[in-house]
Amino acid sequence: MIDEKVMELYKASNNFGAFLEMDLEVLNEGEVKYTLNIKEKHLATPIAAHGGVVAGLIDGTLGVAALSIAGKNNKVVSTVELHVNYLKPVVLDDQLVAIGKVISAGKSLIYVEASVTNQNDVLVAKASGTFNAYPAEKAFEHYKGPQK
């Protein structure tokens, strides 16, 4: 069962995801979906999104999939390794869907894979990542709630 407290703390404190305007849906334990509509603020050229935006979407997707497992033990995760393959350009007005799924979970290391498609179901990126699980109180000991 997913620990809702850890997930809610993550959602409330994830300023980067809010900045990118990513929308999260937990599909199952160990499997999540993030969506992101590409806007002008995401562009590196007049038409193409910055690779860092796609990498941010992927890192969030992989990380929350890992968190949905680690949170059961009152743990959060941090990225240890991230590998991204950009397969097609991401352009203005693309509607991206990233699906992340935990492949292997140990006591402290969690390996996750993800794919990103656009509104035409074209695969635009594939990724994998390794995450370190550690006690949630270390991450949230200084958290003061939403910042305005």
UniProtKB/TrEMBL annotation:
Is Hydrolase set as a keyword in this record?
Answer: yes
Keyword Nucleotide-binding listed? no
Q: Enumerate the spans annotated as Thioesterase domain.
A: 49-124
Keyword annotations from UniProtKB, A to Z: Hydrolase
Annotated Gene3D superfamilies: Hotdog Thioesterase (3.10.129.10)
The protein's matches in Pfam families, at most eight in alphabetical order, are given as: 4HBT
Q: Which NCBIfam families match?
A: unchar_dom_1
What is this protein's name?
A: PaaI family thioesterase
What's the source species for this entry? Brumimicrobium salinarum
Q: What is the lineage of its organism?
A: Bacteria, Pseudomonadati, Bacteroidota, Flavobacteriia, Flavobacteriales
